[in-house]
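lol forgot to send this yesterday, sorry. struct tokens for the thing we talked abt
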């Protein structure tokens, strides 16, 4: 065996030449190229317009604000954010986003006809979803975000499965529309309606070729999940997102959940962001910051578990561990003497901007500045 010593000068010279050649190559690389290479490895960062809903802004103003915040994407999670659904107007929105260097994710609300959350403003569930797909295509969105309903859908003799079945049928009825448009139906785990495993099952049964998941880390805690486990369960299907932190703490007969700005809850968001980068690096992390109130889950009471019988004990145990780490938080209330609407506007903007800063500076997310 040869050793790299004076006895083997040719090997030493070869290594030395390789070193200086590599160094020279690096030194000659254009800084913009290095920046582009760095950007490729980063996850895009954006936000859901619902984060600053109290402002009542429409799409053009929201695009300006997103550009000012130097994010990469924006999720327009409702159809009312547009001043028109005419093709010409929507293409103008697409062009404005492109000019500002922003990617749009388009969405709407509930598309399950058997859910109490469903409204027929746009006709049938199929008509509603087709409209959303058309809007998504026009603004250049790769997804049409939507949801089933809420935790109320877990109640009743047939539980959540009744509504999952209805949602699957609606998706199948518009499959051709989605495939022709090149838009993926992105169903969210929403407001405690579906556990992540139930959503994964829905997607598999509907068809993952045209249906994916909008992964919501905050809503996961309303189905007694640790968001890190939700990520593991839904990453194979994730195409969009709504991300926020949560504080969970023990109370009599259960736990209380309060959604928070990023980095201010008890979820390990550093591990979450790292794992996201590993599992679904091409899916943007879009902040949907909803905070200022708590919700109790009295899982030690006898009548609590019937709607949640399908939740695995192993997933629930991780939620309980989070509750052991958390501490109580005060709800939001306007400063004395301040107009409530103005206070809500300022609060929502502050929560979102603090979250964007945390994601960029602490989690290393985002491609733009």
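and heres what i got for the seq, position by position
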């Amino acid at each position: 065996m040869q050793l790299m010593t004076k006895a083997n000068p040719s090997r030493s010279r070869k290594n030395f030449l390789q070193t200086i050649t590599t160094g020279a190559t690096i030194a000659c690389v254009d800084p913009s190229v290095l920046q582009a290479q760095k950007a490729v490895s980063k996850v895009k960062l954006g936000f859901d317009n619902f984060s600053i809903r109290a402002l009542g802004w429409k799409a053009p103003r929201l695009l300006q604000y997103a550009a000012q915040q130097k994010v990469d994407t924006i999720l327009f999670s409702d159809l009312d954010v547009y001043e028109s659904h005419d093709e010409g107007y929507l293409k103008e929105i697409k062009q404005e986003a492109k000019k500002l260097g922003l990617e749009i994710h388009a969405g709407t609300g509930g598309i399950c006809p058997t859910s109490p959350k469903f409204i027929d403003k746009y006709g049938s569930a199929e008509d509603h979803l087709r409209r959303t797909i058309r809007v998504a295509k026009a603004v250049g969105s790769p997804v049409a975000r939507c949801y089933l309903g809420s935790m109320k859908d877990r109640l009743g003799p047939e539980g959540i499965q009744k509504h999952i079945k209805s949602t699957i049928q609606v998706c199948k009825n518009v499959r051709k529309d989605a495939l022709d448009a090149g838009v993926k139906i992105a169903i969210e785990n929403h407001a405690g309606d579906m556990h992540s495993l139930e959503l994964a099952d829905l997607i598999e049964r509907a068809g993952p070729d045209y249906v994916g998941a909008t992964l919501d880390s905050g809503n996961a805690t309303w189905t007694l999940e640790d968001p890190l486990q939700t990520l593991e369960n839904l990453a194979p299907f994730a195409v969009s997102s709504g991300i926020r932190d949560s504080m969970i703490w023990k109370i009599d007969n259960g736990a209380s959940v309060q959604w928070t700005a990023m980095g201010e809850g008890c979820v390990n968001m550093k591990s979450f962001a790292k794992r996201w980068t590993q599992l679904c690096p091409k899916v943007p992390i879009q902040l949907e910051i909803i905070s200022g109130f708590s919700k109790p889950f009295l899982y030690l009471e006898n009548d609590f578990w019937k709607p949640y019988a399908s939740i695995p004990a192993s997933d629930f145990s991780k939620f309980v561990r989070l509750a052991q780490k958390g501490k109580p938080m005060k709800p939001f209330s306007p400063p004395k003497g301040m107009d409530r609407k103005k206070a809500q506007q300022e609060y929502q903007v502050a929560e979102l901007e603090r979250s964007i800063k945390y994601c960029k500076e602490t989690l290393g997310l985002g491609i733009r500045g």
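The CA atoms of residues 48 and 75 lie 4 Å apart. anyway ping me if u want another try
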